[in-house]
Amino acid sequence: MIEQSHSTDGKEVIELRGIKKIYPVGDQEVAALAGINLDIRQGEFAALMGPSGSGKSTLMNILGCLDRPSVGSYKLDGKEVANLSDDELAVTRNKYIGFVFQNFNLLNTISSLDNVALPLVYAGISKKERAERAMHYLDMVGLSDRADHMPNELSGGQKQRVAIARALVNDPQIIMADEPTGNLDTKSTKEILDIFENMHKMGRTIILVTHEPDVAMRASRQLLVRDGLITRDEGKGVVLDVV
């Protein structure tokens, strides 16, 4: 079966305790993250908000196992990952997390189908199964009729849907989306957020970084990051001012 159901039994899939990220600047040290404590439960749809320089991108990189904290504990699905090596982080990332980026990160020289199937190549999946799974997820985001199209033949919204299908193809526990609507028009933004909401209803855990309050309001939980700390933790529909 291609699509696994993702239980929403409410266990913590992410547990952060005392997370700090400290950078040397000249002879000083600057804390991009100043001691974050955060639990994300399985099946939550959380939006990370914050002004430029607030630390939200640094936090996203640590949550996504793209970076590690200077201090603190990060348990992902109960396993401590804060001190893993680069190779161990890469294995963890590939196992648990699917990424969606603002600029899509598609390869322009291959079709939509092959872009979606790419993570399965690294996972050693057979060509036939790669094609089947890639088509399944393209169909899920409403783009099966664009499977043979190259990225330059797609609109921005269609490119982002291909990117979402690619993020889903390994059936990860968590989808992390970094400003996924940042390059899209209003109509495409709504379509993409509808897809995220549907994934959430299916039990996916979603963490979305945005600076747009109307995007964050679609999430079931909104977290405001300021000066390297989470300063507000609100539910769906609250308008958070990030200025």
Number of helices, where a helix is a run of at least 4 consecutive DSSP H or I residues = 7
Cα Rg: 18 Å
CATH class: Alpha Beta
- How far from one another are the termini? 46 Å
At CATH level 2, the architecture is 3-Layer(aba) Sandwich
Proportion of residues in extended strands: 25-35%
The run of helices and strands is EEEHEEHEHHHEHEHEE
CATH topology: Rossmann fold
Care to count the β-strands? 10
Low-confidence stretches: 1-8
Biggest β-sheet description:
6 strands, mixed
Structural domains: how many: 1
CATH homology superfamily: P-loop containing nucleotide triphosphate hydrolases
Biggest sheet: strands side by side, in what order?
Answer: 6-7-8-3-9-10
Basic shape = globular
Would you mind describing this structure in some detail?
The protein has 243 residues and is an alpha/beta fold. It has one domain: Rossmann fold (3-Layer(aba) Sandwich). Helix content is 32%, strand content 28%. The protein has seven helices and ten strands. The protein has a six-stranded mixed beta sheet with strand order 6-7-8-3-9-10, sandwiched between helices. Strands 2-1-4-5 form a four-stranded antiparallel beta sheet, with helices on one face. Helix 3 packs across helix 4, helix 3 (112-122) runs parallel beside helix 5 (156-168) and helix 4 crosses helix 5 (156-168). It starts with 11 loop residues before the first strand and ends in an 8-residue tail after the last strand. The model is unreliable at 1-8 (pLDDT under 50).
